[in-house]
Amino acid sequence: MKHTLMALGVVASLAGAGLSAASPKSIDLPPDGVQLKPSSLPGYAKAQANCVACHSAEYMRYQPATAPRPYWEAMVKRMKVTFHAPVEDADMPLIVDYLVKTYGNEQGK
Ligand code: HEC
Q: How is the chain split into domains, by residue range?
């Protein structure tokens, strides 16, 4: 009986830990389920339309958080030139702005 109660306690604390989504220990979803981080920046919608057709947002998430704006500019350009991502030239600065502020070194700015 005592053991059963202890086991229940462990289950309850595990369930509690799983609820804090912001925790760095949260469970990784399969790559295909990774969505772009929501944002009020105009580039968010552009990135949704242009950047997750070929791969999930998993790829953005694994870029270094220290990556500066030119890194993201080069990335978007590479997607467009090398892989023919259907990105309008006019949308590129918006997408870069969203990426660097969401995944790069301008987070929280
Ligand atoms: C036409 C398909 C396609 C579209 C659209 C596309 N990508 Fe990619 N992306 C790829 C491929 C293919 C790779 C894998 C490249 C490699 O392994 O070198 C990749 C890889 C990446 C990576 C991983 C890092 C790297 O250098 O490989 C990032 C980050 C990325 N893409 C961001 C973006 C962003 C941002 C956009 C929108 C502007 C975008 N992608 C649109 C095809 C695409």
A: 29-102
Could you report the per-residue pLDDT of 55-85, keeping only the tens digit for each?
999 999 999 999 999 999 999 999 999 999 9
DSSP string, 46-75: HHHHHSSSSS-THHHHTS-TT--HHHHHHH
By alpha-carbon position, which residue is closest to atom 23 of ligand 1?
A: 59
100 lines ligand 1 (CB under 6 A): no
Report which protein residue has its CA nearest ligand 1's atom 36. Answer: 51
CA–CA separation, 50 vs 64, rounded Å?
21
Report pLDDT for 27. Answer: 65
Q: What is the CATH number of domain 29-102?
A: 1.10.760.10
Measure 55 CA to ligand 1 centroid, in angstroms. 7
Span from the CA of 5 to the centroid of ligand 1 (angstroms): 50
